[in-house]
Design brief:
Elements (H helix, E strand, L loop, with lengths): L2 E3 L6 E3 L1 E4 L6 H13 L4 E3 L13 H9 L8 E6 L17 H15 L4 E6 L5 H8 L5 H10 L3 E8 L3 H10 L3 E7 L8 H9 L3 E5 L12 H6 L8 H10 L6 E4 L4 H12 L6 H15 L21 H13 L3 H10 L15 H5 L6 H14 L1
Parallel strand pairs: 3-4, 3-10, 4-5, 5-6, 6-7, 7-8, 8-9, 9-10
Antiparallel strand pairs: 1-2
The structure holds iron/sulfur cluster (SF4) (2 copies).
Length: about 375
């Protein structure tokens, strides 16, 4: 396993980090974390909100059980809480906007993990200016609690995760210089935040990457990539995608939610291999994807748009069908379209283009435009 320093914190983390958002249950979590640690992965990104079933039954608590008995000093644990105005759900560390709520989240993460201290605590999904304000503005804010916890040795370093644009990220790093670690969404299909990653690197702030495989949409082999990278023809897309990230020295660690042992072993082997892609190969890889998708924004099925539609349209499902059929041109997409025809609940024609879903969409998918096209396709079939 290769390791890299997290900015100037003095902490070193494995190039492949342990994402904990896709565990299928307690056993799967314990087995995955222990196997990962044996393979040399030491960075664990946790959240009570992942696989949440109850305050003591969630991914964070399962990680706590998995690390019991392991050498704590060799692990680097990063917890998080989501800053928002409005109703707080402290048990899930969501909607946090006061010092006390944040303190409760820190104490709950410490209790659930039994880790003694948390190497990092990040504001979770700080993607819009209003989220930054909820986290850091006024006197009674969550940042106060994080700084107090740091002084008390309960938290070592602080940071944030974001799906937002590079300008906001750069501005927040400037306004709160004690943010020493960020987690951003970046991969070969979406290089929107590259400028912020470079800024963080220059200012000795660590950078974790989430979404390395674009939500797992593209795996296996594809003629488009084989033709663009003839010399890497035998390599599956997911391996090229990881090598694309590992070759970038401004990236500290890459998170992947691996709940299958085979994926974990394969990805750890790639992160242990120093042979990366050349800049020319990276460029051809990115261009091949752009050609393949015709430059269209792709829905990853993240479901951040859930509960936004006044007509309760299952947006992620309809967008998935649309892109399989109309962007990727796959027969599976056409078969799904056929199935949609008779399902009144999935009637894309109900969309009145209010735009509420796209406001929530980190990928800026033009949902209303695609709903209209989908409605025409369903009607004409
Ligand atoms: S734009 Fe259409 S799909 Fe999106 S929330 Fe509005 S009505 Fe629903
Ligand atoms: S439309 Fe956007 S927010 Fe909704 S599931 Fe797709 S990528 Fe996520």
């Amino acid at each position: 396993m290769q390791y890299r320093p997290v900015g100037n914190t003095g902490v070193r983390v494995s190039l492949l980090g342990i994402g904990t958002m896709r565990f299928t249950g307690r056993e799967n979590a314990i087995e995955t974390v222990r196997r990962a640690v044996k393979l040399g992965l030491n960075y664990i990104d946790i959240a009570a909100g992942y696989s949440y079933r109850s305050p003591e039954e969630n991914a964070e608590a399962w990680v706590g059980e998995a690390i019991r008995g392991l050498d704590r000093s060799k692990l680097v644990i990063s917890a998080k809480a989501q800053p928002r105005r409005g109703e707080a759900r402290v048990d899930r560390c969501l909607g946090i906007h006061t010092r006390d709520q944040m303190r409760q989240c820190i104490e709950a993460s410490l209790r659930r993990t039994g880790a003694g201290y948390l190497d990092f605590f990040q504001f979770w999904d700080m993607s819009q200016p209003s989220h930054f304000e909820a986290a850091c503005s006024g006197r009674d804010n969550p940042l106060v609690a994080l700084r107090e916890a740091r002084e008390q040795g309960l938290v070592r370093h602080i940071g944030f995760t974001s799906h937002g644009g590079p300008d906001d990220i750069i501005q927040w790093l400037g306004r709160v210089p004690d943010f020493r670690f960020i987690t951003v969404y970046y991969n070969f299909t979406n290089r929107y935040v590259e400028e912020a990653i470079a800024y963080a690197y220059e200012h000795q702030v660590g950078v974790a990457i989430m979404g390395p495989l674009y939500g797992g949409i593209l795996v296996g082999h594809s003629d488009a990539f084989d033709d663009a990278l003839v010399e890497l023809r035998s390599m599956p897309v997911q391996e090229i995608a990881f090598r694309f990230l590992f070759s970038n020295p401004t990236i500290t660690t890459v998170l992947s939610g691996m709940n299958e042992a085979s994926h974990l072993v394969e990805n750890a082997a790639i992160a242990s291999d120093r042979a990366g892609l050349t800049p020319g190969q990276c460029e051809r890889f990115v261009r091949a994807f752009q050609d393949f998708t015709k430059g269209e924004a792709i829905c990853t099925g993240c479901r951040y748009c859930d509960n936004t539609c006044p007509f309760e349209l299952p947006i992620y499902q309809l967008m998935g069908t649309y892109q399989l059929s109309q962007i990727f041109g796959l027969p599976a997409g056409d078969e799904q379209l056929e199935r949609l025809r008779d399902q009144h609940k999935l009637d894309a024609a109900k969309c009145h283009a209010c735009g509420k879903c796209t406001e929530k969409c980190p990928r800026h998918v033009p949902v209303a435009k695609r709903m209209k096209h989908l409605a025409e396709l369903l009607k004409s079939g």
